[in-house]
Specification:
Blueprint (H helix, E strand, L loop, with lengths): L2 E7 L3 E8 L4 E8 L11 E2 L1 H19 L6 E8 L5 E3 L9 E2 L7 H11 L1 H8 L8 H11 L1 H6 L2 E3 L1 H10 L3 E3 H4 L5 E2 L4 E2 L1 H7 L8 E3 L4 E4 L2 H7 L6 E3 L2 E2 H9 L7 E5 L3 E7 L11 E4 L6 E7 L2 H12 L1 H10 L3 H10 L9 E3 L17 E3 L7 H25 L7 E5 L5 H11 L3 E4 L5 H12 L6 H8 L2 E5 L3 H30 L1
Parallel strand pairs: 1-5, 5-14, 5-15, 9-12, 16-22, 22-23
Antiparallel strand pairs: 1-2, 2-3, 4-7, 6-8, 10-11, 13-14, 16-17, 17-19, 18-19, 20-21, 23-24
Helix pairs in contact: 1-6, 2-3, 2-4, 10-16, 11-12, 11-14, 13-14, 14-15, 15-18, 16-17
């Protein structure tokens, strides 16, 4: 019997899951780590924390499962996208990783647009210059930390740093590389034109593979630390959203999914590199060779609920620990007591700026309509609804591009809540379906690992054998109508506050 490992390097923690060839999860382990915000709008993490979490979760999964290391055919890695990991000539980390949520690079994005040209940049990279992407982070380090830049010899994305630590290989794959703003996305190769105009050495970048391709195998040193076998293959893997797409079976035209993790995403598969000329949504290579995806992103989705938990629901955190329950379930119980519209309270989830549809790194979170009558249940419901409205903005843009699905697959932490699942179906006005497995990206990269190991002929066929759908929800017409009215008001708030956000930034 052969087994597969999927590892998901998230913003909050790393999760490793062992699967059998039918897609059944046999053992899993998670380790959390901190997020550093040295200044308002900055976001950094220590790559060493990721590596320690990877080692710990791999050892724990092996111990729990009892599976012989030699029986694990392959490992796939998923990860938070866009982060900048800089290594010196000896492969040592030069500075903390500037992660996807960081918003410090507005000036560098303007520089990229000027150097490459706005139209040409979208033609090559399929996206406008964005603060979250990797290219602007590289330029920020060159401008503000020249001593670090001078020592740099390797640039890796977060998941590819784990690959390097596991295999010793400098490699990446097309889905994650698409988010660096350095890849020719239609051509699926590094763009010599963009690299030349930005003066970034191509030799610093890792070799690009397709997501199911084998990039190496576990090194002897990593095997000693983790307990894995040197015979275990490591495949390209995928960025977190591309991995989640595979893990939900979103691998053909007409399929889409919504995920709520730290960020939130509405994602549609495309056999062609469809590009929004306004740059409101992202077009990337997907984990299926020769295909692409279009997605809208809400920066502060699950992050907003986590912030509310940590600032306003401390009694519930303590209660949850004593009862052995998830604190989010207790928060949801309170949110259920508030009606649609949270007693006329709206929330804008812009804690870390926003991508879709506003492309504004300087906007910030807002409660609108707050009064003395509101309780914490109203706050919780308003946050959940605000995230849902932001995702509806993404959904509407994809709909306008001809990518409206017949049914929306739901995954991520938010999808574990039946209350939130129904809310999303009602807000979208679209049937929603869950996946029986809750492993999402970890399952997705395990599927890619199975393809790379020769256990399955293709990603599509592997999904057919390893994924089973679950509950199907239908939108309630009356609830959809009620949410639509609040969503309409929600959409008016950002334009009304846009200039004020800029003033706030300068204060």
């Amino acid at each position: 019997m052969q087994y597969l490992l999927g590892m998901d390097l998230g913003t909050s923690g790393t999760k490793t899951v062992l699967f059998d060839r039918a897609g059944k999860a046999l053992a899993s382990a998670t380790r959390e780590y901190p997020l550093s915000q040295p200044h308002n709008g900055w976001a950094e993490q220590a790559p060493q924390d990721w590596w320690e979490a990877a080692v710990a979760t791999l050892r724990e999964v092996l111990d729990r499962s009892g599976v012989a290391p030699e029986a694990i055919a392959a490992l796939g890695i998923s990860g938070q996208m866009h982060g900048l990991v800089m290594l010196d000539e000896a492969g040592q980390v030069l500075r903390p990783c500037i992660i996807w949520a960081d918003q410090r690079t507005g000036e560098e994005c303007a520089d990229i647009t000027r150097l490459v040209g706005a139209k040409r940049l979208i033609e090559i990279t399929a996206n406008p210059a964005l603060t979250g992407f990797t290219a602007s982070k590289i330029m920020w380090v060159r401008k503000h930390e020249p001593e670090v830049f001078a020592k740099c010899r390797h640039i890796l994305l977060p998941k590819d740093f784990l690959r390097y630590k596991l295999t010793g290989d400098f490699a990446t794959e097309v889905s994650d590389a698409s988010g660096m703003q350095l890849l020719d996305v239609p051509g699926r190769v590094w763009s010599a034109e963009v690299l030349g105009k930005l003066e970034i050495p191509e030799g610093w970048l890792a070799k690009v593979y397709e997501s199911p391709e084998v990039t190496g195998h576990i090194s002897r040193q990593a095997a000693e630390l983790t307990g894995l076998s040197v015979k275990t293959l490591v495949v390209g893997g995928a960025g977190d959203n591309a991995a989640a797409a595979v893990g939900t079976g979103t691998v053909a035209d007409g399929r889409a999914f919504t995920t709520i993790g730290t960020s939130g995403v509405v994602y549609a598969h495309s056999s062609q590199p469809a590009i929004d000329p306004k740059g409101r949504v992202h077009t990337f290579c997907c984990a299926v060779p020769g295909a692409w995806h279009v997605m809208g992103v809400t920066q502060g989705a699950g992050l907003s609920l986590r912030w509310l938990r940590d600032t306003s629901f401390l009694p519930e955190k303590e209660q949850a620990e004593s009862l052995g329950r998830d604190v989010y379930n207790l928060m949801t119980d309170l949110a259920k007591q508030s009606p649609i519209g949270a007693n006329r309270l709206l929330y804008l989830p812009y804690l870390m700026g926003e991508r879709t549809p506003h492309l504004d790194p300087d906007c910030r979170g807002v409660f609108f309509g707050l009064s003395a009558m509101h309780g914490r249940g109203d706050l919780a419901r308003a946050v959940m609804e605000g995230i849902s409205y932001s995702l509806k903005d993404c959904f509407d843009i994809l709909d306008g591009m001809g990518a409206r699905p017949e049914s929306m697959l739901l995954t991520g932490g938010g999808a574990r809540s039946p209350f939130w699942r129904q809310m999303l179906s009602d807000v979208f006005g679209c049937p929603a379906t869950t996946i029986q497995s809750s492993e999402g990206p970890a399952l997705g990269v395990a599927i890619l690992a199975g393809v790379g190991a020769g256990m399955y002929e293709s990603v599509e066929k592997a999904c057919g054998q390893m994924i089973a759908t679950g509950e199907k929800l239908l939108p309630d017409p009356e609830s959809h109508k009620a949410y639509a009215a609040y969503h309409g008001l929600y959409q008016k708030l950002y334009p009304a506050l846009k200039d004020s956000f800029q003033v706030l930034k300068e204060l």
